[in-house]
Write a structure and sequence with these properties.
The structure is a homodimer. Chain A is of the alpha/beta class. The first copy, chain A, has 2 domains: 110 residues, Aspartate Aminotransferase, domain 1, CATH 3.90.1150.10; 238 residues, 3-Layer(aba) Sandwich (Aspartate Aminotransferase, domain 2). Chain A contains 13 helices and 14 strands. Chain A has a 7-stranded mixed β-sheet with strand order 2-10-9-8-5-3-4, sandwiched between helices. In chain A, strands 11-12-14 form a 3-stranded antiparallel β-sheet, with helices on one face. Chain A has a two-stranded parallel sheet with strand order 1-13. In chain A, β8, α7 and β9 form a beta-alpha-beta unit. In chain A, α2 packs across α10, α11 packs parallel to α13 and α12 packs across α13. The interface between A and B is large, with 58 and 59 residues.
């Protein structure tokens, strides 16, 4: 118990191998060595994104690319699908960028459906939609495939998807889905430290961005593409995290994508089993529940702050006592990253013990 | 010779102690543990910045905050002082943000003087000035104190200063200078890996930013201040680099700021001595030469690409063969970070050997 093990929904626990990769010596980022590094990573990233597009490395958290997508792709009005803390905030960020924005709001815990999106888009005037695939605050997994299909019916509308806590835990095939931007941060399902975002964009998004004024430089899609074509990044990259990413991509491909998705589903089932056994409910309805984290509805009225505290003190495990306005009425357990049946078993045993002590 | 030691002007060599600090276990960034970490770092940062203002941690390279400063502080027109690759680009970035901008251009290798800035500002219509203190591409150290004094004569004009490659190598006392933004990236004189920017802002800059529209979220000064007051960051921070920063700030304060400035000056003198002995000249004029790196004018017409190559192959040292349009007609040597008389002596011996082999 040298440290508190993270079962919060990001940052999650980082493996010793990944941690060790952070320590490789620095290199110049305009060097052939850097191009070789990015060149090794690129095809692995394309495999996990399931795309033939280049995948970009942004030295920022996911919010940087979330804001960048708004600046690059919204010229008329953006429809922000709001179903929790992070998706709600994307609407505020759109406004903070000076864009016309409309919120499609559902109650926290409820999903966004394709019908809702279709209905709003049918009113016209939109040229972009934002969707958080797996809303980390509520544990809702939105029906991305159905929503992507519906957005396609509306020509000229870009679909911007945050897969921060779903990427590599459930399938998100970029090309097949036909979305315009898919982005994520490194500290969730990839189990890297925080500090970098990864994203891919469609040809249509690139062509559109090139025509959009005032999109700036730091998150300019055109700059990312121009540099990636030369296996570089527009600005100085966060080299230690890129080393760690290389290491992690090797692990992911060694495990295999399908087995990885299956592992996440199985571990999530274990957590769900515990929730039911204890008599708790889920915030999200059946069929829309995240596979990488569980947002437990505190229908039993336990003291969640005390639960979090006992878990930390007695078991050196960090769980989350609920985010924002659902703090206390929910709590969250992550099964992202490198967890196994054994480690999730340890989590469950610790939870049982801590619940007894409440 | 397990790796190529970096004498390029950033990223520079990272010490084993700093590297080891990257490997500390992750933590939640909305936790008391994170607040405690930032709480330990804040007073050390304030000491090195020489300010009573909070110092902010941005998960980005310096360009993020350079762009952010434009978005937060330019409502009328910005004067971009252009004297090399990075300062020139700041003008382009201002335009890419949709701002009115004017370039004060001098030839690469020449400094910006206070008189030049005064004359432009006297024409009126400006509400911001950007200055790269130490232009890394040309090795020019601009007269920051004099320029800051002149900008003060023009009320309502914000002075935004990039100290990327001068911070902690020469004094840049934030409060005393009275500048509005001072920013830097971690991979230069601080000798951390790249991936984070640090910055402080004046009360005037904060008050102005609060009135500026469309400044966005990711680099919003108001968000940074609101979060820092609670020892947090607006977005998920790059935790490994914050650990490394804590370790490095301890080193810097143990060395002492004045001894650190003196060390950089002495090491820079050693490099300058080598330049003169070899019969080379400096790109920057006397009195305006960087103390953290040397931009050597290739008046002898050597094959700089070959020099770089021999230095790497025979001595496992990386030096820079010139940036952008002065590639080949200049080359650059860094004495930033943790270098000592001994290691700079090794650099010089390796340079002598490599020059002989040309």
């Amino acid at each position: 118990m040298s440290h508190t093990k993270l079962f919060i929904p990001g940052p999650v626990e980082v493996s010793p191998k990944t941690t060790q990769a952070l320590t490789r010596p620095m290199m110049g980022h305009r060097s052939k060595d850097f191009q070789a590094l990015y060149g090794r990573i690129m095809p692995m990233l394309q495999q996990v994104f399931s795309t033939s597009q280049p995948v970009f490395l942004s030295t920022s958290s996911a919010w940087g690319v979330m804001e960048g997508s708004i600046r690059n792709l919204v010229t008329q009005k953006v429809l922000n699908c709001c179903c929790g803390a992070f998706s709600d905030k994307w609407y505020d960020v759109s406004l903070a960028c000076g864009k016309q924005a409309e919120a499609l709001k559902v109650e926290w815990g409820q999903p966004i459906t394709a019908e809702m999106v279709d209905e709003r888009l049918a009113a016209g005037g939109f040229d972009a939609v934002t969707l958080v695939h797996n809303e980390t605050s509520t544990g809702v997994l939105n029906p991305l495939k159905e929503i992507a299909a519906v957005v396609k019916k509306h020509p000229g509308v870009s679909l911007i998807v945050d897969t921060v806590s779903s990427f590599s835990a459930v399938p998100t095939p970029f090309d097949e889905l036909g979305v315009d931007v898919m982005l994520l941060g490194t500290q969730k399902a990839l189990a890297l430290p925080p500090g970098m975002a990864l994203f891919a964009i469609s040809d249509a998004a690139l062509a559109k961005a090139a025509t959009v004024k005032d999109r700036g430089y730091y998150f300019d899609f055109v700059e990312f593409r121009k540099n990636a074509d030369n296996l570089m990044t527009p600005s100085t990259p966060v080299i230690p995290l890129i080393y760690a990413l290389e290491s992690k991509l090797e692990d992911i491909l060694a495990e295999g994508l399908e087995p990885r998705y299956a592992r996440h589903a199985a571990l999530n089932d274990l957590v769900h089993g515990w929730v039911r056994r204890q008599g708790f409910e889920f915030l999200a309805p059946e069929g829309y529940r995240s596979k990488s984290l569980t947002c437990v509805k505190n229908n039993l009225g336990i003291d969640t702050a005390k639960l979090v505290s006992i878990m930390k003190k007695d078991h050196a495990m960090a769980i989350d006592g609920g985010y924002g306005k659902i703090k206390g009425t929910t709590f969250r357990l992550s099964n992202m990253g490198d967890e196994t049946a054994e480690t999730i078993g340890e989590l469950i045993a610790a939870l049982d013990d801590s619940i007894r002590k409440l």
